[in-house]
Amino acid sequence: MHERLLLEQIQAQSAGLESRFPSTLVVGPGDDCAVLRSPSGDLSLVGVDQLIVGRHCTPDTPVDLIARKAIARGVSDIAAMGGRPTWALAAAKLPAGFARARELFDSCAAWAEHWGCPLVGGDIASSQGELALSITVAGAPHPTRGPVLRSGARPGDLVAVSGPIGDSFTSGWHLSFEPRIQEARVLCDALGLSLHSMIDVSDGLGLDADRVARASGVTIEIDAASIPARAGSTSTWRQRAAHGEDYELLVTISPDAVVPAPLSVIGRARAPENGEAPGARVLAPDGTLTPGSELGWDHG
Ligand SMILES: [Mg+2]
């Protein structure tokens, strides 16, 4: 089944989960992380993500960079909620005869510590097929802003990104990116509740903006010409908006707020008009509009 449809089905089945578990669950499936409440009342973030060799990186990728990318993707989802990472778990499915398991877990542990979240456990199983790593990362939300959800965008919001979009594979950025923990912290500090929504751009700017728009019930319009490009990029705006693995923050903020560095404004949110469904669309320089849902990884 199409991955997007399957996720939507799972989320639909999970609707109302928060009301059935009000003492422990604040935000269930559908955001970058779940938001949990401990018995003492503290909130925590937790998310899980997979890295599959042959899909998220090529089979000749060094083991250390495979580990780095797997941990960094999980850390980026914590940043997307405005949090800081606190601990991580790793589970690996190793190809039969894989001789570098120790090196892989040592690297996972080292990168997890690098981003402040000790690797507190893991599991290994061997099977046919490529190496796959499943990483769970937990985090603590910003102490005053609290968790920043993708569902908080409002009509009138400015839409902005924290850095260049596109060319992640050709530049090697997808293996070397720095999860935007510090930037997320700065945005929470500077904007507080004027920071309405946030997501990390993993599957394509258009598709991830579409997720924010639909979760928030708004229309997001992005101006293609204002999407910041990596230095030396020769890609078209359409390629850059669709390739993904940027791991920059995509935010919507109150139009009254002073836009802090390093944000670049790329569009606006508005109320859906004349019965249109919530969603994102990108306005090209030639005046054509492309649905955001068509600009991203099609995980078929
Ligand atoms: Mg994410």
Notes on the protein architecture:
The protein is of the alpha+beta class. It folds into 2 domains: about 20-140, 60s Ribosomal Protein L30, Chain: A (2-Layer Sandwich); about 160-295, Phosphoribosyl-aminoimidazole Synthetase, Chain A, domain 2 (Alpha-Beta Complex), CATH 3.90.650.10. Helices cover about 30% and strands about 25% of the residues. It has a 7-stranded mixed β-sheet. A 6-stranded mixed β-sheet has the order 1-2-3-6-4-5. Helix 3 (about 65-80) runs parallel beside helix 7. The radius of gyration is 19 Å and the shape is globular. The relative contact order is 0.15.
The tally of helices reads 9
Tell me, rounded to a whole number, the average pLDDT: 95
- Ends distance: 7 Å
CATH topology of the largest domain: Phosphoribosyl-aminoimidazole Synthetase, Chain A, domain 2
Give the count of structural domains.
2
The CATH architecture of the largest domain is Alpha-Beta Complex
User: Helicity, in percent?
Assistant: 25-40%
State the CATH superfamily name of the largest domain.
PurM-like C-terminal domain
* Name of the CATH class of the largest domain: Alpha Beta
Bound molecules: magnesium ion
